């Protein structure tokens, strides 16, 4: 099937290229409309959680009480009590359009001294919008934001809605900056890897088509499901990286085919698609499955990332199996043209070849040592403190984070630090007041009072002073939920600390289901590709080891603050619970990607050795005693794939390295996590651990029910089993 697809793309190459160009133009026009089709916001919350259920009640007649925005006025050397200062602020606030605003409160409208700083040089205004939808509140804030300006006064915007608006704005700018940094580096690296401008341009052409086509794919996905704003930021860049990875593999294989027998270009393209194209299809399927595993999470962010990611990966595979073969046929022998004189490393594949033999001399010792190192690197992750996104993901100088810091340092209380209890059911006022007093005695709570009653629904507002992402916050939420409400009623708690607890619980409860789904499908695909039940299990275990090492580093960097100065962020002692899950989906798929590259070559080397042995035998039958050593097949495969896997890893590192330039912490988490996972997997796991484990397993690596590993032949070597796709030579 793959060979036929290659021949079709080669013979109909003009039509394939024309269709690709037409689709790219269509995607550039219609696809970019995806930005207007996104549902907005992040969608991190679990729609089935207690905090979201409480939010739905508060969106009704009962209403919300917590402000959405805190507008902080810093008057500098002047006092808020100065009549000219007070008049200027009051005039500006009075002129703010009230459309979409449910409540706007100031020091002068309330007389509450908590609205003025202790030094009397700052004051704040609280704004609560009428809408209960986060992105509608963001749009309302953008409309009224300029109206709060006061000449001679520094104005900053804090609160959940302001934080969301600032994260959205920075994410768009950061992705544009990441692409502007990554693309030139990708071009340079491809030229270095191939040494030819023509060869380097082919993966870039496919990558460009996938980058544009991703917008059209995402817009199509928005027609059937909600897609988070951040999906387009992450998925399009990863689609570009995967397309370039696949292009690297196929162009490298095409050049090999030309060196072997380049007389028939159509046949060379067909063989390329039949071998490397098949590998691309299998690895792409596995990456898509890893993304699809995210759909087990009910949150819009992770679910939409799963749908969008799987769709874009499938599109990247389709582009690699159609457009790239057509371009290879157009290039033909000119694929090596326009060579760039660059210093070349001397036989890098030979170094990996010798290293593979070195670890296979003592396979048990090598395996135990490497596993111990990876487990030690992952051990810090056991002490992780999970969190949800908040203003802490922004740079230290961002408005939302500055407002939170100044409210804690200069004011008696932060009006945005509230937990809301929604009591449903009939209860008299005395019982509700008594319940509020009980809640106020919970450690960490700074006062609780009934702030609204509508029918059988009651709102109780609780203040707090701790960091909503701290372990203290989680304990306080658990203690509050354990407090018995008045008889005949039930209580629901919401607010940033409660939402954080619910998100972490959702992810912890669903991660086993995600891993089980990905493991089951990965097992089935690898078994179908290689006919072994041992190889899929080995791949799953080794991938988890490489991920554990990356996660240990993520904890040390973002929770403990290692290299925070280099990355330019201020650690707050937490790791966002959403993004390691996202890293699992992406890095696991990439790890299996490299695994398929290597195992496919090992199988080819085994088949080649078996064929050579049969050809050398007088009767045409393979002699087990004279068959090539399995260790040689493994080392030869490592040598032949080292350039591809190393180059693919470097290209992916360059793609995701742009995330490190982001000012948003969770984008940096993706960058650091993926970079480390890819580097560890492409070097320690594929170059060292896989050869050692394969040598340790011997012929059992290829075992499946009904197929016995052959007994050792004379000379101590086991005869190679039948290799899928190979046939014994006829006499």
Structural overview:
With 731 residues, the chain is of the alpha+beta class. Among the domains are: 54-165, Alpha-Beta Plaits (2-Layer Sandwich); 406-500, Alpha-Beta Plaits, CATH 3.30.70.100. The protein is built from 23 helices and ten strands. It has a four-stranded antiparallel β-sheet with strand order 2-3-1-4. Strands 7-8-6-9 form a four-stranded antiparallel β-sheet, with helices on both faces. The protein is elongated, with a radius of gyration of 30 Å. The two termini are 29 Å apart.
Key terms for this structure?
single chain, 731 residues, alpha+beta, Alpha-Beta Plaits, 62% helix, 8% strand, disordered C terminus, MMPL family transporter, transmembrane
Concise synopsis of the structure shown:
By secondary structure, this protein is an alpha+beta fold. The chain contains 23 helices and ten strands.
What is the level 1 CATH name of the domain at 54-165? Answer: Alpha Beta
Q: How many DSSP H or I helices?
A: 23
Shape: elongated
Biggest sheet features: 4 strands, antiparallel
Number of E-type strands: 10
Q: What is the CA-atom radius of gyration, in angstroms?
A: 30 Å
- Average predicted confidence as pLDDT: 85
Sheet/helix structural class? alpha+beta
Estimate what percentage of residues fall within beta strands: 5-15%
Transmembrane segments: 15-38, 185-218, 230-249, 280-301, 307-328, 364-387, 513-533, 540-559, 579-600, 649-670
Biased composition (Low complexity): 711-731
Domain SSD: 198-330
Family: Belongs to the resistance-nodulation-cell division (RND) (TC 2.A.6) family. MmpL subfamily.
